[in-house]
Amino acid sequence: MKRTLYSVAIAIIILSSCSLRHDDVQSSIYILDWYAEAVYVMDSTLVSSTDPLLLAGDGPSDIIVDDNNIFISNSGYGGNASIQKFSLDGDLILEKTTGEMTSPGYLEECDDNIYLSLWLDNSVLVMDKESLETVKTITGVAAPQEIARDGEFIYIGSNNVSETASIYKVNTATWEKTEIESGSNPSFIDISDEKDVFVSCVGDYNSIYGSIIKISNDSVVKRTSFNSYLGKVKCIDGFVIVLDAMENAYLLSAEDLSIIDTIRVSSPSDVERINDKVIFSTNVGKMYVSDLSSVADVTEVEPEYGFKTSEMFVK
Description:
By secondary structure, this protein is mainly beta. It is 5% helix and 53% strand. The longest helix is centred in the first third of the chain and has 15 residues, at 2-16.
């Protein structure tokens, strides 16, 4: 307990060391814990209650929080595949099952709709936020993974391990779908403020290692390859952070994808910016925090409740 309290105290000191400017926003971090099948809320100093805000469904995959509601996708592992809608207080409002052989994965949202990738069904559901009724089904998407939105376009990752696998770009005004050849297992996507699309091509966990690509004007303009398999990718202030599937993360230049530094973290699962800090979550109960001015200089934190985090959402 002493070690835990000391770790939390260190986190508070680090996060408070540079006094917040008057225009900084005190955000909350929503933690989706796959082991507890629950959501916890942390404040900007990484302090949280040991009691969950809400209990999710079976095998929770992803979380989205807007101004009014919390949405959770549940893969159905060990039970029922579904999407859930909660109030911000954690009360369940709606739940919709998606059926066997669907395996709900990643979520994205716009003003009116929620987008939900159905990994086993090779499709993406477009659902009305209010009712969770299906508006459109985007078919012909091989093992869809993470979804990222840029205006009226959504980009959909794929779990296709072929070396010539593609991500998908969909115009949500016309539902026209195009493919951009990317590389093996292009599962994870993020979009910079400059409208460049960065894709983490995970690799096949066998003979094909991972790579990061930069897409501009629907063409791959840069690629950096690794001698390992990769995880999520995040654009932050002119940098690209990519997680290794097993350990560590890498800090890259968003301009040319050159590797600037290796970030020493254990079993990373997600990365998010909160105010002027960068937070790394893990599958093993730890978290790491660094300052935007020195992203690779992380400090290990052990929250009182050791989260086994699958996804974070900062709101």
